[in-house]
Amino acid sequence: MNTQENSGSSRYTMTAPPTEHSAAAANEDEEADSLLMLPLDVEASLAADDGEMEAPPFSWKKLWQFAGPGLLMSVGFLDPGNLEGDLQAGAIAGYSLLWLTMWATAVGLLIQLLSARLGVATGKHLAELCKEEYPYWAALLLWLMAEVALIAADIQEVIGSAIAIKILSRGFLPLWAGVLITASDCFGFLFLESYGVRKLEAVFAFLISMMGLSFAWMFVDTKPSGKKLGIGLLVPKLSSKTIQQAVGVVGCIITPHNVYLHSALVQSRKVDPNKIGQVKEALNYFSIESSFALLVSFVINLCVTCVFAVGFYGSKQADVVGLGNAGQYLQEKYGGGLFPILYIWGIGLLVAGQSSTITGTYAGQFIMGGFLDLHMKKWMRSLISRSCAIVPTIIVALVFNRSDATLDALNEWLNVLQSMQIPFSLIPLFTLVSKEQIMGVFKIGPIVERTVWTVTGLVMVINGYVLLDFFLSNIEGLLLSCLVCAGSVGYISFIFYLISYGNAAQPSYWFSLIRNDDKYDHTKNELH
Asked: pTM to 2 decimals?
């Protein structure tokens, strides 16, 4: 698995021969990195034919053909975990964290563009490449971490759907029944894939439209302040009282399984990774579509935050409102009307939960199939990956279905669990897209490389703060403290191993990026 030949085999025909970087090549890297649309920083000198090097002119018809993967990816920014983070940010911090939601979404877009870049330029998704490029034990640990993150996210998504079903059934269906309905519905939607991926993408477009309509209705109904909204977006503000909500906003945006998912979804379009023009064209269209999809998701998250900022900021309910009781509090605050806000919230929450569980099932298929190289029918893989999440979710629903407080406590633990897994998807992604042996001419340039590693560092610092605060508040007893310390040592050691494996931990590597040294040989940044 872990050989130099294997490292280069997937992109051998696209890899440049070792040459010294000229000043012109360095200028091209700088110019490319200055563009928001990442796919353009390639070296034109490697083409045998100019026609194959350049992407065709922009076409609305082509954009429509490439539209879809970004739509499915954006659902990860709208799952019930995100909605709970939005409502808590609005209730406790008011409008003051809207700027953070905007910039966190921008960082999420950067990560998803790199994930799409990896999938299109190599013809393989992240899980497959991790299996090929890392030693067996490391790949196995990465798979376990991805599965843990997926199960944690799936529990939140399925329980979110179950809460919505309970709201819409006026309490007739208990939480565990909603879990079973959500699980069966998920397989029903996946059945649509047998009729073509475009049909499934159309269903997602409808679901996201319903979600947007529901939360936009609530936004208009509650009449937020336009002035406060604008200030919240443009003026960064953070206090000690809102730091926990700020961390929650960032943590909800970056989901590990979504990074794996997008690199696989883009392969639903036929693109030859050996034809540079085709890859550039695909990356341009995927970038446009992903940017639009995440703009829509940002507007929806903004609507939810504003609704709860208007209704609960500064009130007695601000500290206790959560996903389980949000509908009831909204009903008490705003009353009935032609269409009670309780049921509008229930519809939006149901659509968010249903759509995110489907994409979670997709992600589970790709993660399990890529890391374990499973050769089985798609429905069987779906059944296995879905059962891994549904069984613990049913257990959780039965155990924690006692009060809203227990569900909130569960959600806090699940958020911590997902935050712990973020480095194990970002570090492999950034390591792989930085390697010329794997990406060929589509390797990211030095400015983007510095940016993504800075993002990784910031995310890990934020996670470190959250985990330290959480464990200091919740871990008691000598034995449990020793176990947590031992686990922390292993956790940190594996993170450093992943960083050093890609040479990112070597001082010479960072000095070369800071100085943008023309003589730095990126082909030496290879796996050993």
From this structure: 0.82
